[in-house]
Specification:
Four copies of one chain form a homotetramer. Chain A is α/β, with parallel strands linked by helices and 298 residues long. Chain A is 47% helix and 13% strand. The longest helix of chain A has 29 residues.
């Protein structure tokens, strides 16, 4: 069993750290929130007084932070962990940040002889709690293999997309595509409903035809077609509109940098931004279904 | 075994009629093309001298025609089949036309006491030849049940979406969604490629994540990721860009009529129209992958 | 001075009829609303007991109605005016309807030897009251010339776009473009504001640069940049979002019919439909400015 | 008359420097191209052997460079001009770069006590040659006033949008709006043409209606409507598609940074990128007119 330092105990990081303890690992955690630390302590984690303590004797340091500047702040700069990390520690950043920052972090840690992988996740808070996350990794093959020791206790799939940064790229490609599936499926269902079709029947038909996609399989955006999904629970829980808007912003940054043409992804960014701006940022991202409600005829 | 009249022996209708013969039915066909009639004769069909002959003694009259006005021309008007059809014949129109025309046709035939279902197909020329089409039907439940006698010899799935016209609505909803899946998947793959990812690896990751959809499963738009699909054959064969543009036009007509908001479907209509206009109308619709190629940096 | 029959006394038609009286014409009106008739009587019009009376001795019959089926209902069919109109009467339809219906109406009236022009207007309720409307006409040159006798008393510009129906086409082209100008100008101003620019200064700069357009000249969508426009009056009055959505629907119908590629116009249709659906249908169309408010950063 | 250092003698910078000489200023130039230097010498400029020479005794240093990293390279870093510039010199950067880089440059020069304004231009190569450019400036009011001494010899309009960086913001807002005007006007004209209207007549009508905008006034995208514009010269010359795509990329960067919702600007970026990718990058940006040609009916 491994010795693990864990930084960032939010809605995702908290349950991930708890699952590591369940897996038998020795876990030392750090967060700025006392409440989060208290919960982690109750789950069996040791609590570090300051961030640098999590590196002591660690086989792995794992971070799960909100955005690029938090990650840069933790690892780089004058007080960054790159000064205290041992060359035998593998750094695994599970945050969703830009590929550029991930690559930069990998390169700077490498200069100090420290191995790094980016390993953003999909699966949401539910997957974090259930230990069924998917990790999409970027880094050396050997490093990704080594990381499985801990990743397997927090998730059920570990993919390697390529070198450092590739995990972030693959994740935003997937999430950009997911936003397109969700918006497109919502439109198709609403168009059918507007013409008198039963959304359950239409969902079933498209599921068995060339319209089949993940949202029809497990995350139908139309209320009361499927049980146990956010759309049947007033769009509470799940993956927030605000977070989808953030990921789509990262996707467009990547597209701008590479000159990629992404008409569909540009449109979904604007749809999700508008939807958030209209007050739906804290709803599940399948609530975009409501956004494409047909205009009532006058 | 049934007596069937079959009108319209194009790329789809020809093999469909042939499969009916293989299924043991007595099939009389009509088409304006001598070559098509000759092929049908070789496949075991009887050839009608004029269109009205196909109704004689028919349990079913099936039509597979290019557009609304052909269907209206065959069944309605002074010389339309509604004058010669028997009340014991079930009319099955497999053409992809507007829901409005399908409903009108159903209503007018009903006035003469003739039963009607619309039964547009998905599965393309390959499915027509292999007898694995999907039929998406609109009409009375009893009529759809009765139609299975012949539909099952041409396809493997028969869905009922609702009353007359509902088959057309469900089909365009599905195909609008399909266009969104195809364009979105193409963009996501191109964005990954632009950032150095291997499209096979990225496809595999998204297939097992929330980006999963029909195109990644069986119709990957990126050349050489998958065998036996149009993208690996220079985008030849398959479902033409021109036909997708036609279906997306029908979808937008339906959206305009109902006041539905379809930002994604409007965009794919414009993408497919532009792509056709740029000379790619006769390529498979997965060729939209080439349309979102990143701009070469200067 | 002319004898005029006038059908349809809504927000536009009422003041137009009144201006004809001021111009010295003899005006007989018809509407289903008693209140509207009362107002017209007060303005000096004669009131017809039924619609066919307005044709009696009329040099011109002018109609200003909400949609295609109202226009068809008035002129065509068993009780249509085409039965009572004299060959010396010029029919001027000022409604905004599809070009197709206008062409059909022109053709059917021509069969009875009656001259017709379509003459949709721009300028809104304000222009109708002030007598400063613009008429965009379709029909024979001589008919358009003849119509000036009355059009000049209701407006200040009379254009001829081509034959019957061309007035409607030109109007929807113009209004589709207007929606693009409005949405684009709103976005540009919001982008500047989000980066700390003063919208008055930015408006002034773009007005004198290549971003110059009608909205910056006379209809700035940002509150308090310009006096006397809807944006400075809580978006009350002006040209309603619902009406813009209607015109954009007509534009997309025309695009679908002709195979035109209109990515911008498709997008504005969806923006205006969503905006209406979100409860802003009765606000001025410049309220789309609020729709593109930047998302507040978390 | 002033002593001026000028860096960057491309299609824009060359004629701008020549106009300064005509205005009576003493101009020392630097560029990496021998040919450009030779032309400048012929126009009466002194030629610097290396870039730092242009700062000697200069009242103004003006730069006109392709992109952010060129500007940063010239002014900042170990060999940057910030080391040799005098506190009495006003730096005027006329390049079109990100507002972020402009602000950074202003701040870093200010630390050395050197005044800076960003002053991107509109008006293109034609305006540069004719001395009729528009300068959109960001910086202190006094600095912008002082800059007029030289700007007035290269252009006819000088605007101040706000503090350092504001010039860049205003320029990209304007150019994003311009792309929307151009694409929207192209669509409207094509829609009219597809319905049989004469583009000259339709242009004239919209020019006098609410569709009026800069492109209809001076830069009609439809061939042979207007003389002396790129559309009437096979889309040669003018403002290149590649450059518009670059500016739209800057606009989207700014939108991403601020959370602005720009559905129209996102779409035009994708349209211009696709158009460039299809081989039209070196044509004038009004060639987007060809992109929205109606699909030929089958």
């Amino acid at each position: 069993m491994a010795t693990v330092g864990f930084i960032g105990l939010g809605n995702m990081g908290g349950p991930m750290a708890a699952n590591l303890v369940k897996g038998g690992h020795k876990v030392t955690v750090f967060d700025l929130s006392e409440a989060a630390l208290e919960q982690a302590r109750a789950a069996g984690c040791s609590v570090a007084g300051e961030v640098s303590e999590v590196t002591q004797g660690a086989d792995f340091v794992i971070s799960m932070l909100p955005a690029d500047h938090h990650v840069e702040g933790v690892y780089l700069g004058d007080k960054g962990l790159h000064k205290t990390l041992s060359k035998t520690t593998l750094v695994i950043d599970c945050s969703t940040i830009s590929a550029e920052t991930a690559r930069k972090l990998g390169a700077e840690l490498q200069q100090s002889g420290i191995e790094f992988i980016d390993a953003p996740v999909s699966g949401g808070v539910g997957g974090a709690k259930a230990g069924t996350l998917t990790f999409i990794c970027g880094g050396a093959e050997s490093a990704v293999e080594r990381a499985r020791t801990v990743l397997n206790d927090m998730g059920k799939n570990v993919f390697r997309a390529g070198d450092a940064g590739a995990g972030q790229v693959a994740k935003i490609c997937n999430n950009m595509l997911l936003s397109v599936l969700m918006a497109g499926t919502s439109e198709a269902l609403q168009l059918g409903i507007a013409h008198g079709l039963d959304p359950k029947v239409l969902s079933e038909i498209m599921l068995q035809s060339s319209g089949r996609n993940w949202t029809l399989e497990v995350y139908n955006p139309c209320p009361d077609v499927m049980e146990g999904v956010p759309s049947s629970n007033d769009y509470q829980g799940g993956f927030l509109v605000d977070l989808m808007a953030k990921d789509l912003g990262l996707a467009q940054q990547a597209a701008l940098r590479s000159g990629a043409s992404t008409p569909m992804g540009s449109l979904t960014l604007n749809l999700y931004r508008s939807w958030a701006q209209l007050g739906h940022g804290r709803e599940d991202f399948s609530s975009i279904f409501k956004y494409v409600t047909p205009q009532t005829k006058k």
